[in-house]
């Protein structure tokens, strides 16, 4: 998939988020990279390049305070090749992007990996 087409899907996924969530993302840059770097993989403890779909880097909103007034924007990176390798169709790509964006934004709001996984399991049970 062309990068510009993938970017459109990411923007579409962001727009599916509730408005009150999007309004609180003014300090978040969402970028697309082809694949994670070795440094990024090592930092999160993942060995296989295609296993990392997205990455949140920043200071979660739950720890913001006066001392964080001049920090750079948080960054969410979406890894295009990793997502495309998991999907069999454009529809699946979109679904994975939506889930990845949601997952990384949850980190921005202070959720741990364990907390996010618990929410994902709960949501899957609800969807059944």
Describe this structure in words.
This protein is an alpha+beta fold. It has one domain: Zincin-like (2-Layer Sandwich), CATH 3.30.2010. It is about 50% helix and about 10% strand. The chain has helices at about 5-15, 20-25, 40-45, 80-85, 90-110, 115-125, and strands spanning about 30-35, 55, 75-80. A three-stranded mixed sheet has the order 1-3-2. Helix 1 packs across helix 5. It is globular and about 40 Å long. The N and C termini lie far apart (about 30 Å). The model has no long low-confidence stretch (mean pLDDT about 90).
Essential attributes:
single chain, 128 residues, alpha+beta, Zincin-like, three-stranded mixed β-sheet, 6 helices, 3 strands, 52% helix, globular
**Tally of individual helices:** 6
* CATH topology (fold) name: Zincin-like
| Helix vs. strand class | alpha+beta
How many strands, which pairing sense, and closed or not: the largest β-sheet? 3 strands, mixed
- Tell me which oligomeric state these chains represent: single chain
Question: How far is the N terminus from the C terminus?
Answer: 31 Å
Beta-strand content estimate:
5-15%
In sequence order, what are the helices and strands, one letter per element? HHEHEEHHH
Strand order of the largest sheet: 1-3-2
The gross shape turns out to be globular
Q: In CATH, what is the class?
A: Alpha Beta
What CATH architecture do you see? 2-Layer Sandwich
**Unreliably modeled segments:** none
**Count of DSSP E strands?**
3
Gyration radius, rounded? 15 Å
On the 0-100 scale, what is the average pLDDT? Answer: 88
What percent of residues adopt helix (DSSP H or I)? Answer: 40-55%
Q: What's the number of domains? A: 1
